[in-house]
Every structure is written in structure tokens, then in C-alpha cells.
Amino acid sequence: MPVRIGVVVFPGSNCDRDTLHGLELAGGEPVALWHEQATLDGVAAVILPGGFAYGDYLRAGVIARFSPVMRAVEAFAADGGLVLGICNGFQVLAEAGLVPGALLRNRGLRFLGRDVRIAAERLDTPFTHGLAAGGAPLRMPIAHGEGCYYADDATLDALEAEGQVLFRYVDEEGGQAAEDDREHNPNGSLRAIAGVLNAAGNVAGLMPHPERASESILGSDEGLPIIRSLVESAARAAAGERPLALVAAS
Amino acid sequence: MTIAEPEAVGEPAEPVEPLHRQLGLTDDELEAIRERLAGRQPNELELAMFSVMWSEHCSYKSSKPLLGTLPTAGAGVVAGPGENAGVISIGDGLAVAFKIESHNHPSAVEPYQGAATGVGGILRDIFTMGARPIAVLDALRFGDPADVRTRHLVDGVVGGVGGYGNCVGIPTVGGELVFDPSYQGNPLVNVMAIGVLEERHLTRAAAPGPGNLVVLFGSTTGRDGIGGASVLASATFSDADASKRPSVQVGDPFAEKLLIEASLELIERGLVEGLQDLGAGGITCATSETADRAGTGITVDLDAIPLREPGMAPFEVMISESQERMCAIVRPDRWPDVREVAERWGLPVAVIGRVTDDGDITVTSGGAELARIPAAALTSDAIVHQRVARAPEHRRAAPAPGAPTGASDRLPERGMDPGAVLLALLGSPNLASRRSVFERYDSTVGTDTVVGPGHGAAVMRIKGTSRALVAATDGNQAVGVLDPHLGAAMSVAEATRNVSITGARPLGVTNCLNYGDPTRPEAFWQLTEGVRGLADACRALGLPVTGGNVSLYNESPAGSIAPTPEIGVVGLIDDVAALVGPAFVTDGDAILLVGEATSGLIGSSYAALAGTTVEDGLPSLDLVREAAVQGFARDAIDRGLVESAQDVSGGGLAVALAEAAMWGGRGAAVRVPTSMSPAVELFGESPSRIVVTTTQRHAPALALLARQHGLPVETLGSVGGDRLQIQLVGTSSTGASEERGSTIADVLDVPLTALRHAWDHGLTRALGWGN
Q: Which of A41, A91, A103, A100 is nearest to A69 (CA)?
């Protein structure tokens, strides 16, 4: 039986349907979770999807973190539950303090929708274990106005030392993109960071959209292994097995 | 009500315009209103309601007689003109809803909000029908890109389209960006939206069933957009009090997103009898149109309408164009469920009236009747003007039959190197890459975008099926300014050709007719000719016109815009795996040109660059040929004979080849047999031509198929290498075979990297945008 994975629907979420569709492609059973509910209906993992939760007025993600469902998500995460935030979902996780760092406005101060390439820093996490070792960079779209990853130098050093950098923007050959390389690191993220993990390794945030790169007809299916990794990890967690990643942090 | 207060005491007495004139109504129109009120003088509230409903925007009072000449019947059409959007069946119980609409004047005043609310308005037209919007295409037209004001407008409009569409989560997947001096004082912002629905959910904007409730949900009603688009161009509110606000509406895409979800849920659960969005004319328009369509009346209780601010006058409430509002007709027993849905989505909701059987729109407050007007008088029985059309006395027409053409354009006799001309064209503002614009849009949300903006028609797959919708917009003002009939017909030809060469079958046409002041005979002649061209082309191609919008008074102190019929086309491809794109695919493939160049450089990008002389003519369009070319393209793709297909349009054959080469990342070497001047052969934009590639093995079969469709076809060369090489090979005017092979122009030979560089940076350089 497919494992149940929740997708939180905030008012203004606009990638919720795409993410539910992507979960189906990855073999999961997608479950929509309404922002006002206080429990997670027993799902084995949660995705916070992209969009403009509560209109993103004030600042991306800043209102959504106060919604009732986020209390349940926080408790779930504290208990070791698997949580993935994509785009606006990443912004919400950062605002809620569930992952380190912040997403600032893109360096060019404009919304950017285009394809990028990212590479996983580690393959021993619940979100990346299904990726091919030594594989080519993964091509998928970004679509955001506030995606410039920021943290102070000490935090960045610590993230790198602790293995909490999950994905970086890279060039065609897989080399890390420079901070001023607008072609490959369009939002100007520090150290080209596209995705991060929390310290425990069970919560991840990712700016690009793997769910939009889950079918070859859409130009790329290179995001699907990320969603499939989550689905498989969630299935293991549901079966009482220890999720893969908690290893790193322990 | 304080529409017009007399000047304060002490000021020199100036004659005060009667109220109806202040509201943009003529004396004749006032008389016509009296007739429809059984001779009675309308009160001020009634006059305000008439003024918005009898505006050009809402009533089509100048264009209605013309629009009646358009072909509207076609296979699978389930909703046509008069509904919020055209709807065409696409099989398996599914249908596509689509429409294009203008937001020109608001965008000229406040570009960001004008464009943003333009997107919001057209999206509402789509989901009001019960369709989930899946794509937006925006066709934008501005003046000189080097001008500071133009740059401000471009930045604001692009920001507004993106800001709204990105937030609401509908991908912007195509459109146009055109610069022409005639738009200097009056930019055009035309937005097309496409949605998909289950046919059984098709919802009408009607108010059946006396006793049913009229429910308003969405944003509250405020003073924004009073008079808005409906009277922006034709009336001046002269009150000096503090309520003077911009007439441009303010958009809230977050509210729109909630409105989409709530509306579609109401429809899917069968909770509404009718649904209408609120746009121009606000509550007045929504109630009168829905009542008139159902042959009923509606009584509106002003006191029940949720307001954004206190102290609004009745006329302000009735004609406010506050955005993101919907009007639902609801059976009383379903009201609790409707309220629950709206409130769950965080939307204010209220019963603001009831459907009646008296045929009148009645406005009440505190038990008193403030207005009573027959619904038909506001809508279907609104005044219609028979305007005068007169062709301008001095106009450039196509050369007389038999007159020598084509010999006069002097490339390279003018001293121009064809390679340099090609690079200049690729880097020109109208042909260069639009990437810097469309990457400010989210083109991939929704996970349906197979082909996004930038490379020909947009392609959206339909989840759960093997099918895809293919959409394109085109508008030809450069030819239209001299021959509005030809310009309109060429717009239809190009938009449909762009759809056909993907392998899709065009389903129908939506149009946005952007013209000047219809009370000027010359401008009305342009509109008349444009509609005639639109009708001729659609008939020849067998396509229904399923709706659209008319935008008149597009004039500024600098003059009238070039007549611009913006055409939107949606097509259907049964198997998306068979889709063909414009880019070269494989080295070694044969390159064929189907169709042939005809003379006439006027209106071309080359002419804009190099100028024209009196002998240069307009291109000609043979609609039978056009239909044959498109039929051939679909047939050939159906038989699996085509690797790539690209139409010859802006910049001519050379630009078509250069684009296919750049996009495919591979060069080409071709020899073009030519009987006309090099400029016409390389850069002329005569229609009904496509460049197709195929495997060498299939090339003879493809050429044979073209001949079977009655089309001229030439094998030009093959794909490969990292340069574009074009050699013109002369054929004598007498057709003597020994003349074949004589070179009359230098070979055009440019590396792909140079093409790419010119194309990539042309627009950002023209607009002064940094990368």
C-alpha cells in the first residue's frame, strides 16, 4: 500500500496540486492538509509546497508560519518526522526556524522563472538517497522572487562542516556556481546554496521545483528522484525503520 | 451624490455641463434612455448605471453591427460570443475555454496595476465558465524602446503581468512584444487566458429562477475603479472633493487565487445556478447581464453589500470596479453550503439581492427604491450607433496589378552585406530574444507546460490524456496601418500557421480589436476593414470566432495607433508525442521550403531597418494557399515525415532559418533559388511559407506530399555545422533553365555564435536593461 504523504494547502499555495501530482508519480499516496487543521492525519511525511501563502504579503512565508497546521508540522518535525519545503515552503520553514538561514530577494531584485542545475552534496539523506552517485547535475525550474539563500559566515561554515548543505547551484559540468554567476546561480545565493537540512537531518528546504521536473514531456524528469527518495524514506519511517539520515547528525 | 458640484460661490460663473454629458453620454443617448424608461427622466443613480453600461467597453455600441458579420459556428463550439469566454469541446467530455481581452488605457495610466488587473479580469472570464485556467499569453505593444517613458511602461506592464500571474499560479507561456512608433502615447496590453473544463460543468452567466438569491463573494466593494475602464476614455469627473481617486483598479492576486478555488468548488459541487464575474460596470453589469440572459430581473439591496469604506454613495457602490468579486445565482436551500465554501476560502460573502420575474434591475436601500431600469435596456437593448466609415484619401495601397515590383529593393545593391543585415534584424527590438521579459514570468507552474515562451506556439498538455493544447497570438499592425483588411487577415494567417506547424488542428479564434476613435470616419473604416479581414480569413480557414473584445479610442495627442487586430488561436494535438517544434533536430536532415516568396517589403522588419521606397509594395495573401500550407503541415506531421517546422514571418526566410539553427544548436547550408531581389528572398515577409526539415530518406516523400497539396516546394539544403550559410541562386525571369545556378548575390555566411550573440542581447540593449 502506498505511503501517505501530506501536502499542506495554505491559502495562496499554488504548487499544491503539482506536488500532489508529483507524489503520485513517485508512488506515494498524496494527502492534502488544510492550513487550519491542527493534526496531520497520520501522514508519514509532509511537504510544504510552493506558492504565495497568504499572498506573501509583508514577506514570503512570514504569515504562514503562524497557521495552525504549522504547529502540528513543528511538533512532527521535532519528533523526527520528515518535512520537505519547496520554494515558498522553504521560505515558510526558514521563517519558522525549522531550517537555518533566510531567503532574501533575488540579487537582481526581480522574479525569475527559468531552468537551473543543482547537485546534491550528499546522497545519504532521506531526500537524496535515490539519486545516482556521481550523476550529472539535475535540471529543474526555479520560479521565485525571494530565493537568495543567506546566512552569516559562521553559520555557513557550520552548515558546511555539519553536512547541512543539501543542494548547490552548479554549471553544466557540475562545478559550484559563483555567487555572481547569474546564469547558473540566478538569485545570487551565498555559496550557491539551493537546499539545506536542519541539524537533525529530517527537515529540508529546496528553492527549485523537483515536482515540475518529474516527467520527460515537461522537459526534465530529473526532479522525480528527489520526491521518490522522500516517498521511500517515508515508507521506511512508517514501517518503524530508522530514517536514513538521522545518521549524519548523530 | 456629488458627481458634479457647481463651482464654489465667488468663482466666475462657468456653464456647468449637464450630468449626462459629464458621464460621457450624448444628448441623443439621453433621449434614447428616456425612450427605454417610458419617457421618464432617469435619476442620477440610473444615469450613472446607464453611463457605464452604454460605454463603448460594455455595450459595443459602435462595433456590434460589425461583429455580427464574423463566422461563429464551428465543430464543437459549445459557447460563443456573448458569453464570458468561448468554449470548444475537445473530446472525452472535456472542453477548452479561451478569450483575449485588452487593458490598454488603465495600463497607460498605471502600468503595473493596469496590466495586473488585465490578467485578473481575463482569468475570471475563464473560471466563471467553470474552467480551471491553465495558461496566460500576453501581447504587449509599446512605442520607442529607447524612450524613457516607454521603458517605464514596459517595466511596469511586464512586472504587473508577472506579479499577478505568478502569484495566482497560472503560467504565462507566450504572447508578443512589439515596438512601433504608433503606440508611443497609447500602449496595448492584451491578455489571453486558456482554461480546461469538464463539459458537464459548463456554467452560464445567467440569473434564472425568480426567488433565487443573488450572492456576492470575494473582495469587498470600494471606491477604486469608479467609472474605471468603462468611462476612463470618455468622461471627466469634475468633482473637486477628496474622493478623487485613480480610476485604475487595484489588483489582489491572492484574493483572485482564493476566488478561483472557491468558484470552481461551487461549480463542481453544483451549488450555483449561474455565475458572473464583476469587471467593467461592477454590480450594475453583473446583475443586468445575468438577468437579461435569463429573461428575469434582479432587485439589489444596497445595504447588504459588504463595503470597503463607509459613506459610499449609491452610484459608487453600483458602478465600482473593485477587483476580485464574483456574483453567483443561488437557490435558497443551497445558500448555507455556498456561504460555507466562501468563508472556508476566507472570502466575504453576502446575499445582496433576489432574482425577480419583472425584468427590471431594481436598486433599494432602507426599503426605498432608488432605481428601476429594464435589464435589457442596460444590455441587449442598449443603443447601437451606425458610425461612418471612410477610407483616408492619401493612403499607400498595394501596387496596381502588373506593375513592376520587387526590382526596386536594392540589397546588396544598397551596399548592405546580407550577413550584417541578418545580424541587425536578429538584434532588433521586435525580433531579438524575449528571454529577459519572459523569465520574469512563472511559465512552468501547473506542470502542464510542454513548450513555454520563446520558441513559437505554446504547448500545454492535458493531464490524464495524450492530448495537448497549442496556442499562439499574433497581430500585424505594420501592414494593417496601410491596408487594415490585409493586416487583419495576415494576423489570422500567422497565428493559425504557428499552431498548425506543431501538428495541431486550430479549433477557434479569439480576437482583441484595438482601434482608434470610432467617431472618426477614418478610424471606423480601419475597424470595418479589420473585421472584414478577420471574417474573410476565418472563413477561408474554416475557423469560428468564439469571442473577444473591442478596444476603441486608442489615440493620444501623438495620433491614433496603427490598427491592431490581436488574434489568439487555440489548437488541439491528439498525441503530444507527435509534437513538432521549430528548432533543427539532427545534422544531415534535409531542409525544404514549402510555399514561395512573393514581392512586397512594406511592413517588414527589413523595411523598418532599411526603409522603403515608393515602388515597394505590400505583401499579398492568398487565403486558399494559406489553408493549403497549413493543411499540408498537419498532414505531413501526421504521417511522421517532419522533424521540425518553422514559419517564415518576421525577418523573413533568413531569420526563420537563423532561429531554427540557434534553437537547435546546429547550423545549416542552403541554396535558395530566387527570381526576385535578394532582399525579398532573404528578408521579405510574404505569408504562407514554412521551413520544414526531414530525414534525407523522407525528403522525396515530403516534397511529393507538398505538391499533392498543390504547393511549390524547394529542397534548400541540409542541417549541420556551426554556421548559417545561405546562397541565393538565380533563376531568370523568363525561367530559362540555363540561368539556374548563376549567383547573383554573395553567400550569407555567419557563425551561430554571432547569430546567438545578436539575438540574445538585442532586447536588453534596446531597453537599457542590465543582465
A: A41
